[in-house]
Amino acid sequence: MSFRPRRLRVVCWVSAAAILIIFTAISFGMHGPLGDGAPGSFQRGDQAAMIGLGVLAALAVLLFTRPRVTADDRGLHVRNVLGGYDLPWENIRAVRFSRGAPWASVELDDDDMVSVLAVQSADKEYAVEAVRTLRSLLDSHRSAAPAAPHEGA
Fold first, then answer.
1. How far is CA 35 from the centre of its chain?
2. Which end of the chain has the least Cβ crowding within 10 Å, N or C?
3. First CA to last CA across the chain, in angstroms?
4. Cα(126)–Cα(104) distance, integer angstroms
5. Which residues, at least 6 apart from 96, have a Cβ–Cβ distance to it below 8 Å?
6. Residue 35: left if φ>0, alpha if ψ -120 to 50, beta else—which one?
7. Strand, coil or helix: what is 107?
8. Rounded distance, CA 33 to CA 30, Å?
9. What pLDDT, on the 0 to 100 scale, is given for residue 153?
């Protein structure tokens, strides 16, 4: 199972394209003297630099398309904008998606919380389906895992 944000990816791709178009249009407007009596003039290198800045800005926006959560037999693999986590099922207490929260989170046995940016409230039913699926996988792993021995037995 793998889940990625849907709306955010569309917004990021459209924004990245718009940024690249705007920076390219600005670069074509950079010709002639600098203006306000400043010495010098715009060169082709200045235009190329502006397009390069547009590419860098677009790539920075596209970093937000990176989040993904993947579930397999061993656990959850959470990849956020920067960094990621490999979480074994044995360490996961619950999958949370609180009302009003922007994204889901995973509660660990040591009371840590890991944000799951791949499951966002903006995706509405898709996000609810993803959380339900992750919860059912957690429940199925718990039921398949051998019971821990009781103390004093």
1. 42
2. C
3. 38
4. 12
5. 104, 105, 106, 107, 113
6. left
7. strand
8. 9
9. 44
- Two structure tokens written together for 9: 């990816």
Starting at the edge strand found earlier in the chain, the sheet holding 2-3 runs 2-3, 68-71, 75-79, 84-88
Which own/partner contact pairs does 97-100 have at CB distance under 8 Å and 24+ positions apart?
97/121, 97/127, 97/128, 97/131
DSSP-assigned letter for residue 9: H
Which of 27, 9, 2 minimizes the C-alpha distance to 123? 9
Residue 122 CB coordination number (10 Å): 13
- CA 112-119-95 angle, to 5 degrees, is 40
Distances (CA, A) of 24 to 20, 21, 58, 63, 120: 6, 5, 12, 21, 32
Distance CA 27, CA 69 (A): 39
For residue 21, what are the β-bridge partners? none
- Run means of pLDDT, 10 residues per run, the chain, 153 residues: 88 96 89 63 81 95 92 88 88 87 88 88 88 88 67 48
Which residues touch 76 (CB under 8 Å, ≥6 apart)? 69, 70, 85, 86, 87, 89, 92, 106, 134
